[in-house]
Amino acid sequence: MVKSEKEKMITGELFNVYDEELVAERGIARDQVEAFNALGEKHPEQSRQLIKEMFGATGADVEVHATFRCDYGYNIYVGEDFFANYDCAMLDVAPIRIGKHCLLGPKVQIYSVNHPADPKLRRNGAMGIGKPVTLGDDVWVGGGAIICPGVTLGNNVIVAAGAVVTKSFGDNVVLGGNPARVIKNLK
Description:
Layout: H1 5-10, E1 14-16, H2 20-39, H3 44-54, E2 62-64, E3 68-70, E4 76-78, E5 82-84, E6 88-91, E7 96-98, E8 103-104, E9 109-111, E10 113-114, H4 119-122, E11 127-130, E12 133-135, E13 140-141, E14 146-147, E15 152-153, E16 157-159, E17 164-165, E18 173-176, E19 181-185
Parallel strand pairs: 2-5, 3-6, 4-7, 5-8, 6-9, 7-12, 8-13, 9-14, 12-15, 13-16, 14-17, 16-18
Antiparallel strand pairs: 1-11, 10-11, 18-19
């Protein structure tokens, strides 16, 4: 059986980003995101409900501040007691899974999409490759940090403001720099 472009996208295969189904789904997500951002902080319960409808799954206690950006929304899964500060972006081509009690500072960016190294495949942005991102429980990502495609972070990880995390790390560490490295062990 031939896989759809959406199936290829979610399973990490090379996919056509301009596939009609995917373009339509991104349009739906953009409408949802614009509605969420228009609410701002004046209507917290409505904002929370929109996020719960947009994301693939959330815990009961979830708070996201406007402005927020994502590609699809349905590939974002956050645990209980999740907070994302102003101006966060999650490019959720592949699943982005975030554990319980996690905090994202302002302008945090999480990317689960990459593009092929072959320039012929990369031209016009037509081809993408999904690479899931996973953050464990009790992760705190400082303002302006970037989490790159395919990264997994363990439990109780702190990512310093402005860090660029290009590879995976285990539990109980503080990461900083570009590319991020362990700057302190927590236990």
